[in-house]
């Protein structure tokens, strides 16, 4: 049994590390990569379980893709599985950005052809994920209407809390539309965490949020200041990596921890690496206080995500079995499809597709994913090569 568990953990680490090296394009694209790898190819979970996990990550603050990755690891290999899944997906980006902080601040790689190719890859991957999830989660007229309505409202109403508000609205609509529907059997998510452990995690989340600012005033240690700043940013942000940037800027630039030019240079570098955008904190910590600062900042910004997903998963698993909650989740999952579709247009499509040649490459990559069933890591390589060729030829 122990040997089997070690094998599972090695499997989780191997898959998540490969995703950590190849998942370009931001949090919505990451959910597409996860869907392709964990649901389509490996069949670790069905569409319903994955969609419900994504819905939970949209409800709670923090980096959605990282929380989904942690949740997948927990369901596959327990607490240790969540840890190795997080490390595999996150460390490649952390190491790359810390190296950028030390070595590459003076280089402009934002316009490199292979970077543009990777942005185009994100278009194909997200479109593929939306196609698959839309067929499963918005199969009838009512849920398709919720998805389309959410898509329209997200594009027209872009605020920090708009996505959360629209998910809540979709839950209410789903609750009303499916109020007379019989309870459907939903297979339990395999979550090997107790309610007691989950409650401790939630208590730690709120306790640290309250205590850290107080301790910072009493003990003016550099590392404590860093940890508090990044913990608060990670705990209070909804909407993913781009939303956390203004919070981080307010925390580190006025305090003199990082200069404005270094902040902007690091943000440019963060767009060029795979994995979660929250690892931008690793860069800022390295600029402020070297390797130790990078580790403190990384731990600070991701700890809230860890505590929240571990603290809510067991309760979420029970709630999703309730008939009324199932109706609400019909609406929520349809809304998630709409949110993904909105993100496909902006910022993914509007950032990546600048010409008809770019669009042609995106369509070709989409065809390789859908019809030729090529794995996402191969699409990444082809896309990077295609972006380089476009830059050289056009």
Automatic annotation (TrEMBL):
Main location, first listed in the record: membrane
Alphabetical UniProt keywords: Cell membrane, Membrane, Transmembrane, Transmembrane helix
Recorded superkingdom: Bacteria
Localization (cell): Cell membrane
Residues spanning the membrane: 79-102, 114-134, 146-177, 197-218, 230-248, 291-316, 328-348, 360-385
Statement: the UniProt record of this protein carries the keyword Transmembrane: yes
InterPro entries per UniProt: Chr_Tranpt_l_chain (IPR014047), Chromate_transpt (IPR003370)
PANTHER family noted in UniProt: CHROMATE ION TRANSPORTER (EUROFUNG)
Family: Belongs to the chromate ion transporter (CHR) (TC 2.A.51) family.
Name assigned to this protein: Chromate efflux transporter
Gene: chrA
């Amino acid at each position: 049994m122990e040997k089997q568990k070690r094998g599972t953990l090695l499997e989780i680490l191997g898959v998540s590390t490969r995703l950590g090296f190849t998942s370009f394009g931001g949090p919505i694209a990451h959910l597409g990569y996860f869907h392709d790898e964990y649901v389509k190819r490996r069949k670790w979970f069905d569409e319903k379980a994955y969609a419900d996990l994504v819905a939970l990550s949209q409800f709670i603050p923090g980096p959605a893709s990282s929380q989904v990755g942690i949740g997948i690891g927990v369901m596959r290999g327990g607490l240790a599985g969540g840890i190795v899944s997080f490390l595999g997906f996150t460390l490649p980006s952390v190491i790359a950005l810390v190296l950028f902080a030390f070595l590459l601040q003076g280089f402009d790689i934002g316009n490199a052809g292979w970077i543009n190719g990777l942005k185009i890859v994100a278009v194909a991957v997200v479109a593929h994920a939306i196609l698959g999830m839309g067929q499963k989660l918005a199969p009838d007229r009512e849920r398709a209407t919720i998805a389309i309505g959410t898509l329209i409202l997200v594009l027209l109403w872009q605020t920090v809390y708009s996505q959360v508000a629209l998910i809540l609205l979709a839950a209410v609509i789903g609750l009303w539309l499916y109020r007379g529907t019989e309870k459907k059997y939903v297979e339990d998510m395999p979550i090997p965490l107790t309610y007691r452990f989950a409650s401790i995690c939630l208590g730690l989340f709120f306790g640290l949020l309250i205590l850290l600012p107080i301790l910072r005033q009493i003990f003016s240690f550099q590392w404590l200041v860093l940890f508090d700043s990044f913990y608060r940013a990670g705990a209070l942000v909804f909407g993913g990596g781009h939303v956390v940037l203004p919070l981080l800027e307010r925390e580190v630039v006025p305090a003199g921890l990082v200069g404005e030019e270094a902040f902007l240079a690091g943000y440019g570098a963060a767009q060029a690496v795979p994995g979660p955008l929250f690892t931008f904190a690793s860069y800022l910590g390295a600029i402020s206080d070297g390797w130790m600062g990078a580790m403190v900042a990384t731990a600070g910004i991701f700890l809230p995500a860890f505590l929240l997903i571990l603290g809510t998963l067991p309760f979420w698993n029970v709630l999703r079995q309730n008939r009324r909650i199932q109706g609400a989740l019909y609406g929520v999952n349809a809304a998630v499809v709409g949110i993904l579709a909105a993100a496909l247009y902006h910022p993914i499509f509007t950032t990546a597709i600048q010409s008809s040649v770019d669009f042609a490459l995106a369509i070709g990559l989409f065809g390789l994913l859908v019809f030729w069933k090529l794995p996402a890591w191969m699409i990444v390589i082809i896309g990077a090569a295609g972006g380089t060729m476009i830059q050289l030829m056009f």
